[in-house]
Design goal:
about 300 residues; UDP-N-acetylmuramoyl-L-alanine:D-glutamate ligase; four-stranded mixed beta sheet; 13 strands; globular; 2-dehydro-3-deoxygluconokinase; PfkB_dom; Ribokinase-like; kinase; 2-dehydro-3-deoxygluconokinase activity
Length: about 300
């Protein structure tokens, strides 16, 4: 297998979406949703060679998920089909008075990912491996995979990117806080929401998050519509978020991570990496989809400006 830029590891589920409340018995649309594959898809759209490693069930939903990610230009040869366990599923019932998001992922194929799956990541010789705090909440075996991938004795120098991504539906803040803090401290690049960090670790400001994670080489603290701060060594860079006509928030954090990581892979400075993150997140915020479907014009402008600045 040839070397690629980034391998993203984690569960992707089939998504059933209703335009009206589920209780009305309306028809459902079928899509896909997964934090790590969202990053892989966005990075592929941004011109990087990416792969997704996971497990899906031997069922129609597993085939739909895998095919959708592959169509986006992501290498899916590291996705294993489990003949005994189902593909995870969630339902979006976001109409007024609806139930919100309903998850059906207990006992899914992805929940039995393990440290043995690490070889699928390192066999590609990636420059970067991207993980999130969702995976360790799935099972003890899946948690072992994350710990294995963050072990600096493996990976031949690949950067480890970790999105804290606490999901209260999977585990409480009290359960998750010490685990996610420990995992974040092992990564090279960490993404965390300011409000998320406050909920987990009692850190109300970006500088407080940095004090909790002083050893992380690159720490990005996102503050919703306000902006994002990047801490690298003694340097602190803040870039405000541009205004966006919000349609739906799901997937925007993944798009932000992909934009930032794209800039990192291209060797751009922190301010341009943050700007790329805002641009890709903004594109997803303006759509009903969870993934980046097109490269925003702002991304092209930022890249053109960075190229002319180097020249």
């Amino acid at each position: 297998m040839s070397r690629i830029d980034a391998v993203c590891v984690g569960e992707t589920m089939a998504v059933l979406t209703s335009p009206e409340a589920l209780t009305e018995g309306t028809r459902l649309g079928v899509g896909t949703g997964g934090a790590e594959s969202n990053v892989a898809v966005a990075l592929a759209r941004l011109g990087h060679r990416t792969a997704w490693v996971s497990r899906v069930g031997d069922d129609p939903f597993g085939r739909i998920v895998t095919a959708a990610v592959a169509r986006s230009g992501v290498d899916v040869r590291g996705v294993e089909v489990d003949p005994e366990r189902p593909t995870g599923l969630y339902v979006k019932d976001t109409a007024p008075g609806g139930a919100g998001v309903l998850y059906y992922r207990r006992g899914s194929a992805a929940s039995v990912m393990s440290a043995a799956d690490g070889e699928k990541v390192w066999s590609r010789g990636p420059r970067l491996a991207h993980l999130s705090g969702i995976t360790p909440a799935l099972s003890a075996r899946a948690a072992a995979l994350v710990e294995c991938l963050l072990d600096r004795r493996s990976g031949n120098g690949a950067l480890r990117s970790f999105d804290v991504n606490h999901r209260p539906a999977l585990w409480t803040a009290r359960e998750a806080a010490p685990v996610l803090l420990d995992l974040a401290r092992r990564a090279d690049v960490v993404f965390v929401g300011r409000d998320e960090a406050e909920r987990l670790w009692g850190t109300p400001a970006a500088e407080d998050v940095r004090a909790a994670l002083p050893e992380v080489p690159t720490l990005v603290v996102k503050d919703a519509g306000y902006g994002a701060t990047c801490f690298e060594g003694a340097d602190t860079v803040f870039v405000p978020a541009p205004p966006v006509d919000l349609v739906e928030e799901v997937g925007a954090g993944d798009a932000f991570a992909a934009g930032f990581l794209s800039g990192l892979l291209d060797g751009l400075p922190a301010d341009l990496r943050l700007s790329l993150g805002h641009a890709t997140a903004g594109e997803v915020l303006r759509s009903r989809g969870d993934t980046l479907d097109r490269v925003p014009d702002e991304v092209r402008r930022i890249r053109a400006a960075s190229s002319s600045g180097r020249g």
